[in-house]
Amino acid sequence: MIKVIGFDLDDTLWATKPTILRAEKKLNEWLKVTVPQLSYTAESMRELRHALTDREPELKTKITELRRRIIEHALELSDVSPSEATELSHQAVEVFLVARNQVKFFEGSLATLEHLSTRYILGALTNGNADIKRIGLDTYFSFAFSAEQVGAPKPAHDLFHAALQHNNIEPSQMVYVGDDPVLDVDAANQAGLHTVWLKSATKPDPGATQADQVIDLIDELPAALARLEK
Questions:
Q1: What class, spelled out in words, does domain 4-14+104-228 have in CATH?
Q2: What distances in angstroms separate CA 68 from CA 45, 85, 214, one per listed residue?
Q3: Confidence tier at 96 by pLDDT (50, 70, 90)
Protein backbone atom coordinates (compact mmCIF):
# COMPACT_ATOMS: atom_id res chain seq x y z
CA MET A 1 0.00 0.00 0.00
CA ILE A 2 1.38 3.40 -0.98
CA LYS A 3 1.47 5.86 1.89
CA VAL A 4 3.95 8.56 0.86
CA ILE A 5 4.64 10.48 -2.33
CA GLY A 6 7.94 12.31 -2.65
CA PHE A 7 8.43 15.03 -5.23
CA ASP A 8 11.39 16.51 -6.96
CA LEU A 9 10.75 20.28 -7.18
CA ASP A 10 12.73 22.05 -9.90
CA ASP A 11 11.45 21.20 -13.39
CA THR A 12 8.84 18.92 -11.84
CA LEU A 13 6.49 21.49 -10.32
CA TRP A 14 7.90 24.58 -12.08
CA ALA A 15 10.52 25.52 -14.67
CA THR A 16 13.93 26.02 -13.08
CA LYS A 17 15.85 28.06 -15.65
CA PRO A 18 13.58 31.14 -15.74
CA THR A 19 13.27 31.03 -11.95
CA ILE A 20 17.04 31.09 -11.42
CA LEU A 21 17.59 33.71 -14.14
CA ARG A 22 15.07 36.03 -12.48
CA ALA A 23 16.70 35.49 -9.09
CA GLU A 24 20.18 36.16 -10.43
CA LYS A 25 18.95 39.33 -12.13
CA LYS A 26 17.49 40.55 -8.81
CA LEU A 27 20.75 39.71 -7.07
CA ASN A 28 22.87 41.50 -9.65
CA GLU A 29 20.67 44.59 -9.49
CA TRP A 30 20.96 44.64 -5.70
CA LEU A 31 24.74 44.24 -5.81
CA LYS A 32 25.15 47.07 -8.32
CA VAL A 33 23.20 49.45 -6.08
CA THR A 34 24.62 48.26 -2.76
CA VAL A 35 28.25 47.76 -3.79
CA PRO A 36 28.82 49.88 -6.91
CA GLN A 37 32.58 49.26 -6.81
CA LEU A 38 32.06 45.50 -7.11
CA SER A 39 33.90 44.27 -10.15
CA TYR A 40 33.12 40.82 -11.44
CA THR A 41 32.21 38.90 -14.57
CA ALA A 42 30.67 35.51 -15.22
CA GLU A 43 34.18 34.21 -15.93
CA SER A 44 35.61 35.57 -12.68
CA MET A 45 32.69 34.03 -10.76
CA ARG A 46 33.43 30.65 -12.35
CA GLU A 47 37.08 30.98 -11.38
CA LEU A 48 36.12 31.77 -7.78
CA ARG A 49 33.75 28.80 -7.75
CA HIS A 50 36.45 26.43 -8.99
CA ALA A 51 38.98 27.79 -6.52
CA LEU A 52 36.60 27.39 -3.59
CA THR A 53 35.41 23.89 -4.48
CA ASP A 54 38.96 22.72 -5.18
CA ARG A 55 39.98 23.93 -1.73
CA GLU A 56 36.77 22.83 0.03
CA PRO A 57 35.13 19.99 -1.96
CA GLU A 58 32.28 19.74 0.55
CA LEU A 59 30.95 23.06 -0.76
CA LYS A 60 29.82 21.27 -3.93
CA THR A 61 26.86 19.89 -1.97
CA LYS A 62 26.17 23.18 -0.16
CA ILE A 63 24.92 25.29 -3.02
CA THR A 64 23.56 28.17 -0.92
CA GLU A 65 26.71 28.50 1.15
CA LEU A 66 28.83 28.18 -1.99
CA ARG A 67 26.99 31.10 -3.59
CA ARG A 68 27.47 33.17 -0.43
CA ARG A 69 31.18 32.39 -0.27
CA ILE A 70 31.67 33.33 -3.93
CA ILE A 71 29.97 36.67 -3.32
CA GLU A 72 32.00 37.20 -0.15
CA HIS A 73 35.28 36.61 -1.99
CA ALA A 74 34.23 38.86 -4.88
CA LEU A 75 33.48 41.62 -2.38
CA GLU A 76 36.83 41.23 -0.67
CA LEU A 77 38.57 41.41 -4.05
CA SER A 78 36.71 44.69 -4.60
CA ASP A 79 38.29 46.23 -1.47
CA VAL A 80 35.38 45.56 0.88
CA SER A 81 36.57 44.73 4.39
CA PRO A 82 36.26 41.07 5.45
CA SER A 83 33.64 41.79 8.12
CA GLU A 84 31.53 43.90 5.77
CA ALA A 85 31.95 41.38 2.98
CA THR A 86 30.59 38.64 5.23
CA GLU A 87 27.57 40.73 6.24
CA LEU A 88 26.83 41.84 2.70
CA SER A 89 27.17 38.30 1.36
CA HIS A 90 24.48 37.10 3.77
CA GLN A 91 22.22 39.94 2.69
CA ALA A 92 22.90 39.17 -0.96
CA VAL A 93 22.01 35.50 -0.56
CA GLU A 94 18.77 36.47 1.13
CA VAL A 95 17.91 38.71 -1.85
CA PHE A 96 18.60 35.76 -4.15
CA LEU A 97 16.58 33.28 -2.08
CA VAL A 98 13.53 35.51 -1.88
CA ALA A 99 13.48 35.76 -5.68
CA ARG A 100 14.46 32.12 -6.18
CA ASN A 101 11.37 31.02 -4.26
CA GLN A 102 8.99 33.10 -6.34
CA VAL A 103 8.08 30.32 -8.73
CA LYS A 104 5.52 29.97 -11.49
CA PHE A 105 3.92 26.56 -11.09
CA PHE A 106 3.21 24.34 -14.04
CA GLU A 107 -0.48 24.32 -14.85
CA GLY A 108 -2.29 21.78 -12.69
CA SER A 109 0.49 21.43 -10.08
CA LEU A 110 -1.28 23.00 -7.11
CA ALA A 111 -4.63 21.39 -7.85
CA THR A 112 -2.89 18.00 -8.11
CA LEU A 113 -1.05 18.48 -4.82
CA GLU A 114 -4.22 19.58 -3.07
CA HIS A 115 -6.06 16.52 -4.35
CA LEU A 116 -3.31 14.07 -3.42
CA SER A 117 -2.73 15.56 0.04
CA THR A 118 -6.12 14.31 1.15
CA ARG A 119 -5.04 10.70 0.61
CA TYR A 120 -1.24 10.53 0.90
CA ILE A 121 1.61 12.02 2.91
CA LEU A 122 3.44 14.37 0.55
CA GLY A 123 7.01 15.62 0.76
CA ALA A 124 9.88 17.15 -1.18
CA LEU A 125 13.31 15.67 -1.91
CA THR A 126 15.49 18.06 -3.85
CA ASN A 127 19.07 18.69 -4.91
CA GLY A 128 18.23 22.40 -5.08
CA ASN A 129 17.56 25.09 -2.51
CA ALA A 130 13.88 25.78 -3.05
CA ASP A 131 12.13 26.30 0.29
CA ILE A 132 8.63 24.83 0.63
CA LYS A 133 7.73 27.30 3.39
CA ARG A 134 8.75 30.37 1.39
CA ILE A 135 6.89 29.00 -1.62
CA GLY A 136 3.82 28.00 0.38
CA LEU A 137 4.01 24.29 -0.32
CA ASP A 138 3.99 23.46 3.39
CA THR A 139 0.20 23.62 2.97
CA TYR A 140 0.47 20.28 1.18
CA PHE A 141 3.89 18.88 2.13
CA SER A 142 4.53 17.45 5.58
CA PHE A 143 8.29 17.00 5.09
CA ALA A 144 11.14 18.28 2.95
CA PHE A 145 14.80 17.31 2.67
CA SER A 146 17.49 18.87 0.52
CA ALA A 147 20.85 17.50 -0.57
CA GLU A 148 22.44 20.30 1.44
CA GLN A 149 20.72 18.98 4.58
CA VAL A 150 21.59 15.31 4.15
CA GLY A 151 25.05 15.91 2.73
CA ALA A 152 24.70 14.15 -0.61
CA PRO A 153 22.77 14.96 -3.79
CA LYS A 154 20.82 12.51 -5.90
CA PRO A 155 21.65 10.03 -7.38
CA ALA A 156 22.97 9.11 -3.93
CA HIS A 157 20.21 7.48 -1.90
CA ASP A 158 20.56 9.66 1.20
CA LEU A 159 17.51 11.79 0.42
CA PHE A 160 15.32 8.73 -0.07
CA HIS A 161 16.60 7.13 3.10
CA ALA A 162 15.87 10.34 5.02
CA ALA A 163 12.27 10.32 3.78
CA LEU A 164 11.78 6.64 4.58
CA GLN A 165 13.17 7.04 8.08
CA HIS A 166 11.19 10.24 8.71
CA ASN A 167 7.92 8.53 7.77
CA ASN A 168 8.83 5.12 9.25
CA ILE A 169 7.91 3.28 6.07
CA GLU A 170 9.35 0.68 3.72
CA PRO A 171 10.53 1.63 0.21
CA SER A 172 7.56 -0.23 -1.31
CA GLN A 173 5.23 2.20 0.48
CA MET A 174 6.64 5.28 -1.25
CA VAL A 175 6.44 6.74 -4.75
CA TYR A 176 8.92 9.29 -6.07
CA VAL A 177 7.93 11.72 -8.82
CA GLY A 178 10.54 13.58 -10.85
CA ASP A 179 11.58 14.81 -14.28
CA ASP A 180 15.16 13.57 -14.42
CA PRO A 181 15.48 9.98 -15.72
CA VAL A 182 18.81 9.45 -13.94
CA LEU A 183 18.75 11.57 -10.78
CA ASP A 184 15.08 10.89 -10.06
CA VAL A 185 13.93 7.67 -11.73
CA ASP A 186 17.10 5.55 -11.72
CA ALA A 187 18.12 6.69 -8.25
CA ALA A 188 14.70 6.08 -6.69
CA ASN A 189 14.32 2.73 -8.45
CA GLN A 190 17.68 1.64 -7.08
CA ALA A 191 16.57 2.69 -3.60
CA GLY A 192 13.54 0.40 -3.95
CA LEU A 193 10.87 3.06 -4.36
CA HIS A 194 8.08 3.15 -6.93
CA THR A 195 8.70 5.82 -9.55
CA VAL A 196 6.74 8.16 -11.78
CA TRP A 197 8.63 9.94 -14.53
CA LEU A 198 7.32 13.33 -15.62
CA LYS A 199 8.76 13.54 -19.12
CA SER A 200 10.09 16.87 -20.35
CA ALA A 201 11.28 18.25 -23.65
CA THR A 202 14.75 18.84 -22.19
CA LYS A 203 15.11 15.25 -20.90
CA PRO A 204 13.14 13.07 -23.31
CA ASP A 205 15.23 9.91 -23.07
CA PRO A 206 14.89 7.32 -20.30
CA GLY A 207 17.73 6.36 -18.01
CA ALA A 208 19.09 2.92 -17.26
CA THR A 209 15.87 1.78 -15.58
CA GLN A 210 12.20 2.06 -16.37
CA ALA A 211 9.76 4.13 -14.33
CA ASP A 212 6.68 2.36 -13.04
CA GLN A 213 4.56 5.05 -14.64
CA VAL A 214 5.29 7.76 -17.21
CA ILE A 215 3.29 10.98 -17.49
CA ASP A 216 3.51 14.02 -19.72
CA LEU A 217 1.69 16.48 -17.45
CA ILE A 218 1.57 16.75 -13.66
CA ASP A 219 -2.22 16.55 -13.56
CA GLU A 220 -1.94 13.01 -14.95
CA LEU A 221 -0.34 11.91 -11.67
CA PRO A 222 -3.50 10.84 -9.78
CA ALA A 223 -4.43 8.43 -12.59
CA ALA A 224 -0.86 7.08 -12.68
CA LEU A 225 -0.97 6.43 -8.95
CA ALA A 226 -4.31 4.66 -9.32
CA ARG A 227 -2.76 2.36 -11.90
CA LEU A 228 0.14 1.65 -9.54
CA GLU A 229 -2.22 0.63 -6.75
CA LYS A 230 -4.27 -1.82 -8.82
A1: alpha beta
A2: 12, 10, 38
A3: very high
